[in-house]
Structure formats: structure tokens, C-alpha cells
């Protein structure tokens, strides 16, 4: 009498084939994304705080470097109009670089915290900045001191020229800042999400 017991398909039969691990990984990530994906305003808020802090630190660093190098007197021999244009151009480029780096960092942090939907987390960081700007603008308008309030709250470098000089290109400058901040936040969100995907793939490859 045989004592062998038929256990049905063996364990080896249930093991994934060559493409089984990849399929299981994709299915698992898809289920997790379905449950935990989407824009997380809490994570985006902390990403926005990161972007703001990064902008403040970069601005302070650049100001210190400029003061140490004595850049304030670099253009002293140029005509006044040429000096204003040169300073305005350099300051505008520096401003855009600071905004790009700051919001990239913010989007990255938000996506690392949320794990999924990196683009949406980056967009959330940008939306927090828009909301904050609108709220500060409204409060400043009500208080009757809008310009001073914004200059204290935005944490971003300001162009070292007067309002009359920027009147013609002010709209272009604002549009460029809005676009660059959005692009930086979205790219940071993508970079933060890709980190988690690499971790997931490494876990399945090692299994």
C-alpha cells in the first residue's frame, strides 16, 4: 500500500516562470498605485516647504558670494542704462536657476514621501506655492501694504532694479518664474518617484 500522498501541483509548479517575477512586480505596483496613488496634499505641502527653504538658502548663499566678490562695484565704469540692463539680465537668470533648483527639490521630496504619482506630487507643490502667493497677496491688499508683505514672504531673490525699469518686462518675468517653477516641481516629482521604482525592482530581482 503506497503511503504517498498526492499534494496536487507541487511548489515548483507554482513558481513564476522567467517572466513571472516581472509580471508579479508590475501587478503589485499597479495594485499599490490604485490604492495609494493620487495627489497627496500633505506630502506636497512639505515639498513646498522644502522648495521655500531651498530658495531662501540659495538666495542667502548667492548674496554672500556676491558681497564677498564685491560684485556691486563690478559695473561701475559702464553707463547707467547699460549697467541696469546687465544687472537685470544676470539677476533674472540667477532668479530662474534658483526657482528651478528649489522647486525640483520640493517636487522630489513630495514624491519620495508619497511614493506614487510623482508628477501629481510635483504639481501639488506648485499649487501650494500659488495658493500661498494668492493668500499673501489678498492679506497684503487688505492690510494696505502688499508690496512690503510679499517681499518679506516670498523668500526668493528680487531683481535689483526699480519698478519703472521692470514695468515693460514684468509680465514676462512673472510668466517665466511660473513656468520654471512648474517644470522644476514636475521634474523633481518624476525623479523622486523613480527612486521608489528602482527599490521595488531591486527587491524582486533579489528574491
Automatic annotation (TrEMBL):
UniProt-annotated stretches for the region Disordered: 1-25
Transmembrane segments: 45-69, 89-111, 123-146, 166-191
Lineage top rank: taxon: Bacteria
Keyword list, A-Z: Membrane, Transmembrane, Transmembrane helix
Name of the protein described by the UniProt record: Uncharacterized protein
Native organism: uncultured Friedmanniella sp
Lineage, top ranks: Bacteria, Bacillati, Actinomycetota, Actinomycetes, Propionibacteriales
Amino acid at each position: 500500500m503506497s503511503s504517498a500522498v498526492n499534494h496536487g501541483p507541487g511548489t515548483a509548479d507554482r513558481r513564476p516562470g522567467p517572466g513571472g517575477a516581472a509580471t508579479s512586480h508590475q501587478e503589485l505596483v499597479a495594485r499599490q498605485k490604485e490604492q495609494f496613488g493620487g495627489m497627496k496634499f500633505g506630502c506636497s505641502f512639505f515639498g513646498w516647504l522644502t522648495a521655500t527653504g531651498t530658495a531662501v538658502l540659495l538666495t542667502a548663499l548667492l548674496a554672500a558670494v556676491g558681497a564677498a566678490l564685491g560684485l556691486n562695484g563690478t559695473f561701475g565704469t559702464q553707463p547707467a542704462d547699460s549697467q541696469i540692463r546687465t544687472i537685470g539680465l544676470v539677476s533674472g537668470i540667477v532668479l530662474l536657476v534658483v526657482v528651478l533648483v528649489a522647486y525640483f527639490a520640493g517636487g522630489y521630496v513630495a514624491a519620495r514621501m508619497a511614493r506614487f504619482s510623482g508628477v501629481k506630487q510635483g504639481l501639488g507643490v506648485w499649487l501650494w506655492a500659488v495658493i500661498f502667493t494668492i493668500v499673501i497677496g489678498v492679506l497684503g491688499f487688505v492690510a494696505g501694504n502688499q508690496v512690503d508683505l510679499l517681499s518679506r514672504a516670498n523668500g526668493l531673490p528680487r531683481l535689483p532694479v526699480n519698478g519703472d525699469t521692470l514695468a515693460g518686462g514684468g509680465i514676462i518675468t512673472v510668466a517665466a518664474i511660473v513656468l520654471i517653477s512648474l517644470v522644476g516641481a514636475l521634474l523633481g516629482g518624476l525623479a523622486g518617484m523613480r527612486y521608489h521604482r528602482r527599490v521595488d525592482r531591486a527587491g524582486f530581482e533579489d528574491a
